[in-house]
Amino acid sequence: MEHLPHCETLLLERNGPALQVTLNRPEVRNAMSLQMVAELATVFTRVEQDPTMRAVVIRGAGGHFCAGGDIRDMAGARGQQAGEGRNDPFYQLNRAFGQMIQQVNESSRIVIAVTEGAVMGGGFGLACVSDLAIAGPTAKFGMPETSLGVIPAQIAPFVVERIGLTQARRLALLGLRIDGAEACSLGIVHQVAESEEQLTGMLGQALDRVRLCAPNATAETKALLHRVGHEPMNQLLDSAAEKFAAAIRGPEGTEGTLAFMQKRPPIWAGNDY
């Protein structure tokens, strides 16, 4: 993105083909306000419009990832005149978050979550829609909604997709909090760092791998993975074969096979791509 959007709740930093998005409300452990939800949606819309952007790294300021929804927004919604059904302010507040997290889930770019401290509620959901999640040594994960008398309405489907129904039931229905090691064993995160230095190293290695993978092929692969289980397998494989043929005849497939034969890195692995 030539011009990063102005954000009040996020810090944005471009690093080559990656954009680091830092949730920046440390005074409330980066609790997600309506404004933050709107700004995240804007950032991901802009990322999709920039072909040079290949990865988005999401982390939190002040030692925490995200403590969930902002209680003050909920109090504000309670103070509004109650509406019925979809006119209810609580419906609109909750659904806005769901639309944003679905947008992040379906982004064609690689989304990396660097989780530290509180990873609760909406923050837990955000981690569950990342392509790669790394936990720092302080990370604690949980779905505390039922202990607050509410439900994990927008994140629950993504948690089930991430770790399966059996484990999602245990976490959601008991309102459990777990550490990074257990989160890794369940598949919520992929790696656990034992120190800040190791966390930085893991992120750097991941971004190095991003550079080695062709951006269009990566986007097509991610879209294909999202289709699994949502349409008949035969139909899906027919479509996938068509996309494979288009890819191998396209510029990335041509360059990739040529680079392999010539024993050199493909052009998208360079710093100027």
From TrEMBL:
Output the superkingdom of the source species.
Bacteria
Which Pfam families does the record match to this protein?
ECH_1
The GO terms describing molecular function are: catalytic activity
Which terms does the UniProt entry file under GO BP? Answer: isoprenoid catabolic process
Q: Which InterPro entries match?
A: ClpP/crotonase-like_dom_sf, Enoyl-CoA_hydra/iso, Enoyl-CoA_hydra_C, Enoyl-CoA_Hydratase/Isomerase
Concerning PANTHER family, the annotation shows: ENOYL-COA HYDRATASE (PTHR42964), POLYKETIDE BIOSYNTHESIS ENOYL-COA HYDRATASE PKSH-RELATED (PTHR42964:SF1)
What family name appears in the similarity comment? Belongs to the enoyl-CoA hydratase/isomerase family.
What name has this protein been given in UniProt? Enoyl-CoA hydratase
